[in-house]
Structures are given as structure tokens and as C-alpha cells.
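#structure-requests
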Amino acid sequence: MTDADDAAPPAGDATHLGVDAAEDAAAVITAVGFPRMPARVLMALIAAPAGGYTAAELGERLGVSAAAVSGAVRYLQTVHMIHRISRPDRRLVTYEIIGDAWYGAMSTNSPVYDRLAALIEDIGAAHEDDHAARARSEEMAEFFRFMSRRMPQLIDEWETLRAERLLSD
């Protein structure tokens, strides 16, 4: 348990736990290119109670408008990170994170890495007289090819660790 887990929830709502940690995590994934509001909604849903949050609850937790929540959940549904849950016993729709969302996103990126490497090599090839530009493009392309080769191995390692954890639970 971290200090962020002990942080006080927003005034008047004791159900929102880990708010500071969720906001910090959202800031980190935003810094590496994930859109800000979808990052905040995603991290809020990781910390959500069983059954997820309604759009109104997300807006309350995050202190944002319904329009901001709507755009964020639409984005997260499009990239298959969350899903809508309609239950017959509840009038309102809730949103929940898809359990394997990050795993799935990372495991399917090898073709993207290969394509990026090829395109970045093309950038370098267009600069045959500019050694610095060519060297930068070669190094970046090499990195993406490395990621493409290693990702299947990392996924295999993760699946093994996950299976061991599930067996021990």
C-alpha cells in the first residue's frame, strides 16, 4: 500500500480510493503520448469498485464535464480498453476496464513496429548525404525491429507469470 492509497478521496465521496495514484499514473501515460482525458478515465476505471462507474460517477470523480467523459469513453472503447455494461437491474450504463486491455494492445503491436522500422528506414534513405539524419533513422528503425523481435518473447514470459499467479490464487 502506498501513500497515494491512503490519500483522502474527494470531499463527500468515500468510495473514490487511490485518486492521487490514479492521477499520477494518468500523467505518466499522458507524458508518453496517451490522450489526457482517456488516460484519466482509464486510471479511474482501474480503481473503480466492482461494477465500474457510470458516466456521471466518472465525471464526479474526475471533476470534469459529461462531454469530457463522453469523448474519453468513446476513445477508450474504440481502442478496446473499456466496455459498456448494461444491466437489466440498473437504468444507467456503467463502464469497466477490459481485463487484458494492456496485454492485448502490447501483444498485437509487432506488425506496427515492423512497419515503423521500414518507414523510418525510408526517411534515412532519403537523406543519403546527411549522415546525422541517416544515423538517427537507422538507430530508431533498429529499435523498432528489436521491439518486434522481443515482443513475442515478452508476451510468452508474461503468460507464464500470469498463469503461475492464477494457479497460486
